[in-house]
Amino acid sequence: MGWRDLASEALAGIAARPLRSALTVLGTVLGITTLVITLGVAATAGNQIAGRFDEASATEVTVAIPDQRDPSAPPYVTWAALPDLTRLNGVESAAAVARPTRTSSAQVRANDLKDPTAVTDRTLPAVAATSGLLKVLDASIKQGRFFDDGHVARHDRVAVLGESAAKLVGITRIDDAPTVFVNNEPFTVIGIIDNIGRASELGMASAVILPYTSANDRLRTGNPTEVLIHTALGAAQLVAGQAPLALSPNDHAQLRVLAPPDPASLRGGVEHDVNGLFLVLGLVSLVVGAIGIANVTLVTVLERTGEIGLRRALGAARRHIAAQFLVESSAIGLLGGILGASAGMITVVVVSVSREWTPVLDLRLAAGAPVAGAIVGLLAGVYPALRAARMQPVDALRAGT
Amino acid sequence: MTPVIELTEIERTFDADPPVRALKNVRLRVEKGEYLSIVGPSGSGKSTLLTTLGLLDRPDKGSYRLDGIETTELDDARRTALRGNRIGFVFQAFHLLAHRSAVDNVGLAELYQKGERRSRTQRAEAALQRVGLGHRTLFRPDRLSGGERQRVAIARALLGEPSLLLCDEPTGNLDKANTNAVLDLFDELRAQGVTLVVITHDEEVSMRADRRVRIDDGVLSDGSTSFQGSVLR
C-alpha cells in the first residue's frame, strides 16, 4: 500500500462524513487560532511598545550623586573624574553639573541699577557645569557661544543663560557683553541657549550656567551633584552599568543611575504578561480539540468496524488499519492547524490595522501552527488507531457493514 | 495437481461454558475449478468453517493447505498476505463502502496488494464488466439494487484473480430474482474456471453447485448421509 493510496483512503474517510469532520476540525481551529492570536498580538504589541522608545530618550543616562554624609571625607565624584567616563565605549558626550538645592537658588540680576519700578532680582538656579553640557543637553546656541575648557581652566567668570533666564533678567543681546550678578558676584554673559532636546533637562532653560571652577571660587557650588550622559544608540544599558564604576571606583554603590528602561526587557515583559494567560488558554483549547479528535475518531472506528473487517479480509495488515486512522486524525489536525493559523493571522492583522500598528507575524509561527495541529491530530489518533488495529477480522466482519 | 483446499482433521473449539466444539475432525478437499456448496442450518459450524477457510481464524488442530501452502503454521502477517492474494470474499451483507463508487469499492481489493496503481481503475472496470455492471461503475452502493450490490462485491472478490472465491450466504439478503441472477453469475464464473465455495443454509442455492457437502453440529458429511471423519472424494 503506497502513500498515495493511504492518503486517498484517509481523505475518503474524512470526506465520507463531512459535517462530523468539520466539527472535529473546529476544536483544533479554536486552539490554534487562540495560540496564533496570542503570540501574534503579543509580538505586535511588544514591537509597538518598543517602537515608542525614540532614539533620544533611549540614549539618556543620568547619574545622581547623593550628598556626602561626612563633609571631611573625599567626595564621591570629583570634577576631574569626568574624563574617566567619557573614554568609555558608547559614551557620546557627558557633563558633570552641580545644581543648587531647591532652597539655595541664587539671586540673579542683570545690572547694578536700583530701579524701583521694575523687578530686577530674580531667583534662578545657578548651575555649575563642565564644558560638555551643551552637547549633552542637545541644545542649540541662540546667541554667542558656550564656555569651553579654556574658560574652565582659567576660572573665567563667564555665564551662559537659558532662554527663559535671559528673558527674566532682561538680557536680549550679548554683543555688548552684559553682566549678570549672581548673589552679587558679576559674571559676563557669553551666550544664550535654547531648544533643549534632553526632555529631563528642560529646566535648564531658566538656569544660569557657570563654569564649575569660577562658580566654586565665587559661589561655593562644590562638587558635582549629577552627571548627565548621552550614549550611543543601544549603549544606554551598558553605560548605565559602567558609569558609576568609572566615576567613583571607591563609592560606586552610592551613586544612583537613571537609565531608560531596557526596550528588550520591556517588550519581553509585555509579551510575558500577555502570553502567560492566553498561552494557557490556547493550550487548553488545543487539548480540548485533541480530546475531540480522539473521541470522534474512536466513534468512527467503532462505527466502521465492518469496514475494518472487510479491509482485513482484503489483506490489510494491522499496520495498514492503524496507519489509515492515524492519517485521518492527523489530516483533521492539520486542517485545523491551517485554518487556525490563517484565522489567527487574519485576526492579528485586523487588530493591528484597527490600532494602526505594524503587525508582526513570525514565519516560524505561521509554519509551526499547522504542524502543531497535525501533531495534535496524530497524538489524538493513537488510541483509536490501536483499537482499530487490534480488532479481530472475524469479529469485525460479524459486527455488520 | 495440488488441490486449492486441503483440510485434514481440523478441530476448532471455542472457550465457553461448556466449551463449544464448532468443528470436529473436518476433512475437505476442493480441486481447482470446482464449485462446491457447504450447506447447514444455523449453529452447525458453517461460519467457523468459513472463517477457517478464509484464514480469518486459526484452527486448534489439524492442517489446512491452501494451494499447497500449509497455513496453520504461518504468522499473522503471512496469513494476511495470503488471504489478500488468494481468497476473494463475498459476504451476505455485501460489505461495500457506502460513500465510494462501485469502481472504487472494487479497486479496494487491490489496495493492500502489489497492483499497479495507475491501471487499477481499468482492472476494476473490467471486473465490473465481467459481472455485468459495466454501466454502473460510478454509482454509489446506495443507488444500486441488492443484486447489483452483491455483483459489485463479487467483482471486488474477483479482482486480482484469487485462487478461491469464498461466498458466505451470498444470497441471504436478496430476493428471488436477484438470487437467480447471482447464481447464474456463479455458473458463468464456474465455466470460466473460478474455484467457488458457497456456504449457505438455503438448499436451493446449494443445489446449483457441482458438489454439496453438509455440515451438522461441526461434522462435515457428504450429501445427506452423516459420515463423521470421512475423507470426501
Note down, in words, how this protein is organized.
The complex is a heterodimer of chains A (401) and B (233). Chain A is of the alpha+beta class and 401 residues long. Chain A is 53% helix and 15% strand. Chain A contains 13 helices and twelve strands. Chain A has helices at residues 3-16, 18-51, 82-86, 133-137, 149-153, 163-169, 212-219, 236-247, 263-303, 305-313, 318-355, 363-390, 393-398; strands spanning 60-64, 91-98, 106-109, 122-124, 126-129, 140-144, 158-162, 179-182, 185-194, 208-211, 226-231, 256-258. In chain A, strands 1, 2, 3, 4, 5, 6, 7, 8, 9, 10, 11 and 12 form a twelve-stranded mixed beta sheet that branches. Chain A is rod-shaped. The two termini of chain A are 23 Å apart. The model of chain A has no long low-confidence stretch (mean pLDDT 85). With 233 residues, chain B is an alpha/beta fold. Chain B has a single domain (34-59, 72-221), classed as Rossmann fold, CATH 3.40.50. Chain B is 30% helix and 25% strand. Chain B is built from seven helices and ten strands. Chain B has helices at residues 46-53, 76-86, 102-107, 120-130, 146-158, 176-191, 203-207; strands at residues 5-14, 20-30, 35-39, 61-66, 69-70, 87-90, 164-168, 196-200, 211-216, 219-222. In chain B, helix 6 links the parallel strand 7 (164-168) and strand 8. Chain B is globular, with a radius of gyration of 17 Å. Chain B starts with a strand and ends in an 11-residue tail after the last strand. The A-B interface holds A 1-2, 4-5, 9, 12, 15-16, 306-307, 309-318, 320, 393-394, 397, 400-401 and B 51, 54, 56-57, 76-77, 80-81, 83-85, 89, 91, 93-100, 104, 108-109, 111-113, 117, 156.
Distinct helical segment count of chain A: 13
Number of H/I helices of chain B: 7
**CATH architecture classification name of chain B:** 3-Layer(aba) Sandwich
**What percent of residues of chain B are in strands?**
15-25%
- What is the total tally of β strands of chain B? 10
What is the global morphology of chain A?
A: rod-shaped
Principal-axes shape call of chain B: globular
Helical content band of chain A: 40-55%
Computed CA radius of gyration of chain A, to the nearest angstrom: 37 Å
Low-confidence stretches of chain A: none
Low-confidence spans of chain B: 224-233
As a whole number of angstroms, the C-alpha radius of gyration of chain B is 17 Å
